[in-house]
Amino acid sequence: MARLRVGIIGAGLITQVEHLPNLLALPDMFEVVAVADPSAKVRAHLEGRWKVAAVATPEALFEKKLDAVVVATPDALHARLIIAALERGLHVFTEKPLCYAVEDADAVIAARDKAKRVVQVGYMKRFDPAYEALASMVRGLGDRLRYVSVEVNDPDAWPFVAHRDLCGGDDVPAALIEEAQQARAEQIARALGKRPTDEQLRGFAGPYCSSIIHDVNAVHGLLDEMGLKTGDAIGAAWFAKSSGGHASVRIAPGDAVWSMAHVAVPKLADYLERISLWFDDRIFELRFPAPYLNHQPTLLIEKRSDGQQARAIQHRPSYAEAFVEELKGWWRAIEKGEPVRNTLEAARRDLALLAALGRRALDS
After folding, report:
1. Which of 209, 210, 274, 313 is deepest in the core (most CB within 10 A)?
2. How far is the C-alpha of 329 from the C-alpha of 123, rounded, in Å?
3. 290-302, pLDDT tens digit by residue?
């Protein structure tokens, strides 16, 4: 079994809670060579807590002997760093969103094709055992689909990571923060076709591209299994000072509609994420736990009727961790040539839909 030498770019919450410990827990597949982060406090914490080398910049990381990198920086930096890694012949695992503007996704795809390396996007729900089970259950049911709904209540991560040994990078140079914020504003302006207000920018970057994007990708995968695709946008808007967002689109062919909503309830230590698919004779519902609560399985509920009798079946196919399984899938794609499950092309499709909905929201 080949062991990949991996570097991680960015050591924020997702790296400290998930990617770093999960990579270290797969020693037959991965060797963590070093982590790059601009915060001296975070670097010292990583070296003490996890016993890994830490450097200040991606350039310093690229100088090390690597096979692959994990990109977990602020979103607006993803595309540039992925391309830089590919130009150095490295495989890439990148956090979502891949980027904001579709043309940036196209540039990443071109760089991947030129480098002939594996790039996988971090949509861990595609590796969730309950999601995998649902994908097989809906196969062939496209002509019977009536409605898809997505509901998300997310107070942010604070209730679910308070017990973890984390270090915040409050010493990151202000110039770097400003650079990332300006890059985000420029990229979102290109994605939406005009420069949004600060509130609109937060709505696109937050509810749409940070939260609902996971569910957009998941539903796209389920529609693929049914031979369906998204059609026209019916409506879209941001609300609650852009801490909430909703949207509706038609599904083609047929007469089904897909609605989605995210709302932040910042002072409530509770999380809800639910994807429901309504058919003419059954309903499937996925209930996801808060992402950072490991070992909390997603619940798949199937509702059906036998004559006059209604029944609900709860499926728990496995207790495997989606965050771990996606890293295993990345390794298999690199070492065994297995198909990449979360492709750049799929991420581009997600971004194209969200951009279309964002443009609709600007006009609402």
Report:
1. 209
2. 12
3. 999 988 999 999 9
Amino acid at residue number 324: V
pLDDT for position 273: 97
| Residue matched to tokens 């915040």 | 168
**Angstrom distances, CA of residue 142 to CA of 135, 187, 223:** 12, 35, 8
> CA-CA distance, 108 to 193, in Å (whole number)?
20
Mean pLDDT of the chain: 97
Nearest of 89, 10, 83, 87 to residue 46 by alpha carbon:
10
3-state secondary structure (DSSP) of residue 85: helix
Strands 229-239 and 145-153: unpaired
Tell me the C-alpha distance between 336 and 175, whole Å: 42
Q: Are 95 and 203 in contact (CB under 8 A)?
A: no
User: Which amino acid appears at position 347 of this protein?
Assistant: A
Q: What is the DSSP letter of 239?
A: E
SS3 for 116?
Answer: coil
